[in-house]
Amino acid sequence: MQYESKLIPVLREGVDVIKMICFKKLKMHLPEKYPHKDSTYINYLAGAVINELFGTQNPAEPFAGFALENKFFIKLELKNMTSNFPEMRIPLTDALRVQFLCDYQEGIDSSHILTQAKQQGILVIDRDAPLPAKFMTLVRKLGNSFDLITQL
Asked: Which bin fits 61, alpha (ψ -120 to 50), beta or left (φ > 0)?
């Protein structure tokens, strides 16, 4: 069981790396769509989209109020995620599935997050669930390319 207790936190860190990559991509993309908005709005919107996708709402202010006020734009950007970032479908699919498996091991039912991602066309249905080593290899490769992880 000690191996399991170390594996889940490592996999969750991998999920967080994928989230950060998506956040960075959104931060680069959103100013083109919302040129009249300042960088704070762009950062909040990018964060809210990632939170919505992964089912991790931030209840603290000003984030909760922003998410409530901008629900339409959050849903719109989530809907356009696959057309704006087709290269992220596989990493997002793997991260969402790994998050689900980690949640399941901890007694949390997060199947609704997979259902939502499937409905939005983000989840690659015919892709096998990633094994931990394969997922972490993907995370390291992507994380390195975005300067989020350094190679040893």
From this structure: beta
Q: What domain count does the chain have?
A: 1
Residue 29's domain comprises: 2-145
Span 80-99, pLDDT tens digits: 999 999 999 999 999 999 99
Within 8 A by CB and 6+ apart from 101, the residues are 11, 129
